[in-house]
Amino acid sequence: MGNDILDTRGKILQAAIDIVGLKGEVTTREIAEKAGVNVAAINYYFGNKNNLLKEVENYYSGLLYDDQYEILASKKLDNTEKLIQWAKSLLNFMFKYPAIVGLIVNITTEDKSYSPVLIQKIYVNREIQAAVEDIISEATGIKDKKILNYKYLQVFSGVLGPVVNLLVANTFGKRESIADINSPNELDEYINLLVNTALKN
Question: Each residue of 183-199: pLDDT tens digit?
Answer without folding.
Answer: 788 888 999 999 999 99
